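Holo prediction. Input below; ligand is (2R,3R)-2,3,4-trihydroxybutanoic acid.
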Amino acid sequence: MKLTRLAAGLVLGMGMACAAFAQTTMKISISTAQNSHQGVAIDVFAKEVEKRTGGRYKVQTFYNGSLGGERESIEAVQLGTQELAFSSTGPVPNFVPETKILDVPFLFRDKAHARAVLDGPIGQDLLTKFDAKGFKALAWAENGFRHMTNSKRDVKAPEDLKGLKMRTMENPVHIAAYKTFGIVTTPMAFPEVFTALQQGTVDGQENPLSVIISAKFDQVQKHLSLTGHVYSPCIFVMNKATFDKLSAADKQAFLDAAKEGTKANRARVDEDDAKGVADLRAKGMTVIDNIDKTKFVTALGPVNAQFEKDFGKANLDKIREFK
Ligand code: EAX
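Structure of the complex:
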């Protein structure tokens, strides 16, 4: 009798302890290293989620594409086998076609312009387009402006790109534009890029300084041209059903944590942009930093006409002229 009561008490006590410490663990992944602008984003996010939910939610962080490439991670989030991912928008149009417009080359003047568009009504409206596809898009963040690297020659003008075999993201807008430059495009997931460059499967690739530095592409690429040909947004995505199950306060906690992650991410991109060129020169890269961008814009004439048809000139102008 006594024993039974003791056992009952124990079970009750343990139950209460479990309730008090109930912790749900979620996963988030990136394809770059922890020591990168993306690593900073998810590390801050994880810390903020835990803090803002009183430790009831814990976010486990995975780096270097250890859970798969970006497309795979987004797919996993859509299926719900992974709760969260942080990804560039490279593969996103394959899931949410409306985001394609952001990948148009030379659309944004600078980072301030891009960030203002993403944080303003255009970007916030685009976030809602993820809902119907099984995602909750928590916040925009960034990779930054993409530049071209290769192992063959200095790229100073668009003609220099003709015949270069370059790895691209699995992004239809990028591929169409780069083909117009005469690039031989080879779409590939990020975790395979270093080896492909090292083995000469491709001559080059394009990525922001933050990615070039953190992925150590200077070890396998000689020539860097600051083409800044396209702005590369990133996004925090969450499985929609998982988000919907959260209480209103916890939903807000996740949204606020993503905002904090974005702040840290953008600050790191600024830092990498500020010291990246000197850093990469010191590591032996030849950096062409006086690119005449108008030549590159002109070379894209035909495909730009197609983009205006596909996305609507008025929609592109709304982004171009956003203040
Ligand atoms: O998100 O695939 C890419 O080139 C991306 O820029 C990279 O994964 C970082």
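Residues 31-32, 70, 88, 90, 143, 169, 190, 207, 211, 232 surround (2R,3R)-2,3,4-trihydroxybutanoic acid (CB under 6 Å). That is the main takeaway for now.
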